[in-house]
Design goal:
about 450 residues, alpha/beta, TIM Barrel, 2 domains, 4-stranded parallel beta sheet, 18 helices, elongated
Length: about 450
C-alpha cells in the first residue's frame, strides 16, 4: 500500500494502533512496528492513532521515538468509552487531552490529532496550545506566558478558607452532609446547619443531585447556609447537568458570592434517579472539571484567556477505596491529583481494611493530598442492605450486615449503627485527615452523636 501511494508523489504516513502495554492487538511491540516502518523507504512519516487514550499514547510514543528518526504523528482517542445514561460516551475532557498534546510535541512528535471520541473542542484547544510549541514562536510565547504567570498571585491553600487552613495545618476536620430540600422551604435545613455549627462541626457538605434527584439548587443552599447559619460549606458540584460554559460560570459565580470549598464529582447518570428521561450533559468528567477549576485558580479561563483576579477555590475530589475495578480507581485518583485536586472525600466507609489498603497504594505517589473519610451511620438491616446494593460505590461487608441483622428494634438499629460508625472512624483515623458524616434520613442528631468522640481521635493523632 505504501509503495502504491508513493506513486502519487505525495508524502506517505503509515499509522498503527496500540492497545495495552504499548502493543498492537496482535501483540507486536510499538517499537518493533516503528522500526519496520522506519526501514520502509516508501514511508515518510510514522503515526500512532486510535486504540488507546492520551496516557497510553504517551507511553507508546516514547518507544516509537526511540525506534525511528522519521517524523512521528500522534492521534489518540479521547480515552475509552463508558456507558453513561444508556449511551457510550468518551469522557476525557479537552483540557486533559490538550495537556497530553503539549507533552507529545515537547517529547518530539511532529504533529498531533485525535481519533475516536475527540470533538472539535478537543482539536481546537489542542491546536491553540501546540502552536506555541512550534517553530520560532515557541520561545516568544513561553517567555510571555511565564511573565503573565509571574504577575498572577495564586492563593495558597491555607488562605482559601477556614476549612482549608485547618487541612493545611494537618488538623482533623469534621463535616456533616445535609441534603438540600425538595421544596423551596429551607428552614429545616438551616436549623440543622445551626445545630452543627453550635456543636463545633467545621463544615456542611451539600450534595449536588444525589442519585440524580431534583432538589433545590445546592449552590443556593450553600450560600444560604453560610449567610444565615454561620458555618462554612463544602459544595458538591457534578458534571451531569451543565455544559462547559455553565460550569465555568458557576465556579466563578459561586466563588464571587463567597463559596470557597468545592467537591468536584462526575455525578450519577439520570437513569439512576426519578427522571430517567432527563439528559445527562457530561461535557467533561471530574478530572476535566478539576483541571478547569485549577486553571481558574491560576488565572486562566476555559478558552485560555487570562482572568484577573484568579479564583481561590479549594478543590476537592471523590475517591472510592472499595471500587470493584481498583486499578481504574487508583489511576483516576492519580489523574485527579495531577489535575490539581487539593483534598479528597471518600464514599461511605464500612471496611476499614479497604481504606487502609487504598491509603497505602496512593501514599507513594508524587502528589499527596488530605483524605477525608465518608461515614454513614446505619439505621437498620434494611438500610444496610440498601446501601450495599443500591448506592453506587458503597460496599457493606458481610460482617456488618450480619451485625445489623441482629438488631430487633429501631432504637437498637440506630445504636448499633452509631457504634459501627465510631469503631470505623477509630480504625481509620491514623490514615485520614477528617470525617464527613452523613445525616441518615436528615437526622442530624445521629451524625452529631457519631462525631461526639472525634476530639479524642484528634488528640490521639496529635
Amino acid at each position: 500500500a505504501a509503495a502504491a501511494a508513493r506513486a502519487s508523489g505525495l508524502p506517505v504516513a503509515a499509522s498503527f494502533a496500540v492497545a495495552d502495554h504499548a502493543e498492537t492487538i496482535m501483540g507486536a511491540p510499538a517499537e518493533a512496528v516503528a522500526r519496520a516502518l522506519h526501514d520502509d523507504p516508501n514511508v515518510d512519516l510514522v503515526g500512532l492513532n486510535c486504540g488507546t487514550g492520551p496516557a497510553g499514547a504517551f507511553d507508546a510514543l516514547q518507544k516509537v521515538l526511540a525506534a525511528t528518526t522519521k517524523p512521528v504523528l500522534v492521534a489518540p482517542n479521547a480515552g475509552f468509552p463508558r456507558q453513561v445514561g444508556g449511551r457510550m460516551l468518551y469522557l476525557v475532557s479537552p483540557e486533559y487531552f490538550t495537556e497530553y498534546a503539549k507533552r507529545f510535541i515537547e517529547m518530539g512528535a511532529r504533529g498531533v490529532g485525535g481519533c475516536c471520541g475527540t470533538t472539535p473542542a478537543h482539536i481546537r484547544m489542542a491546536a491553540k496550545a501546540v502552536k506555541s510549541l512550534s517553530g520560532v514562536k515557541r520561545h516568544v510565547e513561553i517567555v510571555e506566558r511565564r511573565r503573565e504567570e509571574a504577575a498572577v498571585k495564586v492563593i495558597p491553600t491555607a488562605e482559601k478558607s477556614a476549612f482549608a487552613a485547618k487541612l493545611a495545618a494537618g488538623r482533623l476536620v469534621t463535616s456533616v452532609e445535609l441534603l438540600p430540600p425538595r421544596s423551596s422551604d429551607m428552614s429545616a435545613l438551616l436549623a440543622k446547619a445551626r445545630r452543627c455549627a453550635e456543636a463545633g462541626v467545621d463544615a456542611i457538605n451539600i450534595p449536588d443531585g444525589p442519585r440524580a434527584s431534583a432538589r433545590i439548587s445546592p449552590m443556593i443552599a450553600a450560600l444560604t447556609i453560610e449567610r444565615e447559619a454561620g458555618i462554612e460549606t463544602v459544595l458538591h458540584y457534578c458534571c451531569r447537568d451543565r455544559n462547559l460554559i455553565g460550569m465555568q460560570s458557576d465556579l466563578m459565580g459561586g466563588y464571587a458570592a463567597g463559596l470557597r470549598n468545592f467537591l468536584i464529582i462526575t455525578g450519577d447518570p439520570p437513569k439512576l434517579g426519578d427522571y430517567p428521561d432527563a439528559t445527562g450533559v457530561f461535557d467533561v468528567d471530574a478530572i476535566g472539571l478539576t483541571r478547569m477549576a485549577a486553571n481558574l485558580n491560576r488565572g486562566v479561563d476555559l478558552a485560555g484567556a487570562p482572568i484577573d483576579p484568579p479564583t481561590g477555590i479549594l478543590i476537592g475530589v471523590g475517591a472510592n477505596p472499595c471500587a470493584v475495578d481498583r486499578k481504574r480507581e487508583i489511576d483516576r485518583y492519580f489523574r485527579k491529583l495531577d489535575a490539581g485536586a487539593e483534598f479528597a472525600i471518600t464514599q461511605p466507609i464500612f471496611d476499614a481494611d479497604a481504606l487502609r489498603r487504598f491509603c497505602d497504594e496512593v501514599d507513594g505517589y508524587a502528589i499527596r493530598i488530605p483524605i477525608i473519610a465518608g461515614v454513614w451511620p446505619l439505621l437498620s438491616y434494611k438500610n444496610a442492605e440498601f446501601m450495599n446494593n443500591e448506592v453506587p460505590g458503597v460496599v457493606v461487608p458481610a460482617t456488618t450486615l450480619e451485625r445489623m441483622s441482629r438488631c430487633t428494634t429501631k432504637e437498637d438499629g440506630r445504636r448499633t449503627g452509631i457504634e459501627i460508625a465510631r469503631e470505623t472512624m477509630a480504625a481509620i483515623a491514623p490514615c485520614v485527615r477528617g470525617f464527613q458524616v452523613s445525616a441518615p434520613l436528615g437526622n442530624v442528631d445521629i451524625a452529631l452523636d457519631v462525631l461526639a468522640g472525634v476530639s479524642d481521635l484528634a488528640a490521639a493523632g496529635d
